Amino acid sequence: MKKITAPTPPPQTFRRLLPPPPRWRKDLAGVLIPEDRLARRVRQLAASIQHDYRQHEPVLVALLSGTVMFLADVIRHLELPLRLDFLSVSSYGASTTSGELVFSKELRLDIQGKDVLVVEDILDTGRTLTAVLEKLRAQRPRQLRVCVLLDKPARRQVPVTAHYTGFRIPDYFVVGYGLDFAERYRNLPFIGVLKPELYGADPQKK
Ligand code: IMP
Ligand code: MG
Fold first, then answer.
1. Helices 68-75 and 35-52: crossing angle, nearest 10°?
2. Which residue's CA is the closest to the ligand 1 atom numbered 16?
3. pLDDT of residue 91
4. What protein residues have CB closer than 5 angstroms to ion ligand 2?
5. Which CATH fold topology does 18-47+57-91+100-198 show?
6. Where exactly are the structural domains of the chain?
7. Atom of ligand 1 nearest to the CA of 66
8. What is the pLDDT of residue 1?
9. 178 torsion bin: left (phi>0), alpha (psi -120 to 50), beta (else)
10. Does the annotation count 115 as an active-site position?
């Protein structure tokens, strides 16, 4: 990794869609963030985290399963004595807004007095992250910060912001680079926009 700088350049908003690879043309309206842009931005975020946590031994708490690629790419650039743990949370019920959040995987590490950095794939309504932060705060970490790859501010219902944000995106339902629709598309190496006709009326059902 080259020179360590902080703070990170502000997140860019991507709007223009690029043509998807032939294999995914029937599923995707387009590619929103290509691989090289993801890689470049991940390196910037990592540089910023490396700088901010240089005197610390952070515990990274990643939310399953959407963070897999993002997490793997960020941490390989960090030269910190970090530890890693995972939480899994899903909403239970028919729609995003009414669904109750249920934790299906708890932390293994004790985070009391630790510097915790939550890693999440996408900040949408803000409900998931709010519940996660509340849960973690109850375990009395010394510091609690958030790193998200994507932010969809247009859909926010609960005011919550991240300390590190990769990209701001318009109100598209996106897949790839770990993000899914009905558990599919996590393996795409880019962020793509799903064709609306594939998800019908309720894309955010999760
Ligand atoms: P929130 O609680 O509404 O902020 O939703 C956050 C969660 O919803 C994320 O962790 C994702 O699992 C899911 N999500 C929200 N928007 C999208 C999207 O565009 N694509 C895939 N998953 C999404
Ligand atoms: Mg998620």
1. 60
2. 124
3. 78
4. 66
5. Rossmann fold (3.40.50)
6. 18-47+57-91+100-198
7. 12
8. 45
9. left
10. no
